[in-house]
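Each lists chain and fold; for instance:
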Amino acid sequence: MPSGLARGAVLSGRVGSGLDPCAALQTMVEIAPNGVAEVVFFLGDAPNETEARSLIARYRKADLDAVLSEVRRFWDDTVGTIQVKTPDRSMDIILNGYSMAG
């Protein structure tokens, strides 16, 4: 129950070294009995608001399952070039990536 997610809470907006920053996202969703809802948050980085809005518009139109698959392939290729083998299988899974667990 983080106080920053309480209804009406106002965060300080302060950032900087030593402030232990974190992000908190919240939305209210009412779902009818037997209903279904999908909530998608876009997290990213851009040098300015214009480029951030451009990215949001781009990904609102995108096939997000395909984008996620592309991101997973990228990271599998990037971190998959080196594999660690230890006597502890659980450590291998952590070091080599979750996708290596299967």
